[in-house]
Amino acid sequence: MSEPPRVAFVSDIFYEVNGAALTSREFVEYGKRNGCPVLTLHPHTETRLFDDGSARYVELQRSLATVPVETDFGFDTLMWRYKGLIEKELDRFQPDIMHVVSPGDLGLLSIVIARRRKLPIILGYHTNLHEFARHRLEKALSFLPQRFVESAGKAAEDHSLSLLLQLYKLACASLAPNREYTELLEKASGKRSFVMTRGVDTIQFDPAKRTRTDDTFVIGFVGRLQPEKNVRTLAEVEKILLAEGESNFRFSIVGSGGEQTWLAENMQNLELPGVLRGEALAEAYANMDVFAFTSTTDTFGNVVQEALASGVPAVVTPGGGPKFIIRENETGFIAQDAAGFAQHIRTLMADRARLAAMKRAARAQALEATWDKVFESVYQAYDYCLRDAAC
């Protein structure tokens, strides 16, 4: 297309502190920098409509009927009350395509509206909601026999995934953070799926922001302290390190959530600064020596990329998307369990020359991950939907 398409960009999260919200904000900023017309629709603490450069903002306040999903966002059961307003804004903007970031409250409403208007839809896959369902249910049923809990959790996960994948049949194409998920979506929907990675701010996240001068080895984690992040593994890692005679280390676990109290009660060498933002977060990353990301449910893992940008190699699990971010044995490691995490951490504790080399490699890798590259590929996916796909 000679002119960039007019994109109605729908995100159920926008100002929250997570990877999908960050990606949504960066997408709108990319559109503004490049003069691409974007109608961005997303929830906020109040309803506001305004223009900023080539972007039109439609911010919708969630109601008291919102069911909590996380500490900072939920599912508004009354989101449909905005149907008329959204229709009016679409009439005004006249989009060529609708990009729905995820199938949440606003996303589902927008899919219905787009289908009625015969507007091409590209649907993103950012969160393993089915795995969230399993973890949350298993935690709620933890007082029951383990065998029953595991069976119920598996059933919840399978059913949730089946329902979720049905939505992707309604789109012209989908976007997912790596080939593992694009293959899943293509098989389930019969539609094309494109890889959409994420960029990182290498000015904000920079090894130069390290302020710590002591020789204590700092093992870091950043994220929601919830069951699906598998953060209790960090306590197991600490126990293994202590049992193997290590003492000159501490954990820096940044974030908040339901597991915070448990971690405080079950770990010794620990600092819990809570949620950090801006320069405080950048400094916390830079002061780490290794990043231990225990989550098995993240589809990408922005925090891993932020750690790499800060010159911090990462140890990740084989589940989810973070394994696609690191370059194994160069900028990080993949660990199967707590023992694996402890082994890789001890390797870097003992070999500071190798640690220094991996820190340099981590920074170099992150410098290649720009948001402009990410969104240029997204606009290529739009072109496919508008020119080649049978929507």
Considering the chains and any ligands shown, give keywords for the structure:
Rossmann fold; alpha/beta; 16 strands; 2 domains; six-stranded parallel β-sheet; 391 residues; eight-stranded mixed β-sheet
In short:
The chain is an alpha/beta fold and 391 residues long. 43% of the residues lie in helices and 18% in strands.
Written account of the structure:
The chain is globular. The strands form three sheets. Strands 3-4-2-1-7-8-9-10 form an eight-stranded mixed β-sheet, sandwiched between helices. Strands 13-12-11-14-15-16 form a six-stranded parallel β-sheet, with helices on both faces. It has a two-stranded antiparallel sheet with strand order 5-6. The mean pLDDT is 91. The chain has 14 helices and 16 strands. It is of the alpha/beta class. Helix 6 links the parallel strand 9 and strand 10. The chain has two domains: 211 residues, 3-Layer(aba) Sandwich (Rossmann fold), CATH 3.40.50.2000; 160 residues, 3-Layer(aba) Sandwich (Rossmann fold), CATH 3.40.50. Helix 4 packs antiparallel against helix 5, helix 7 crosses helix 12 and helix 10 crosses helix 13.
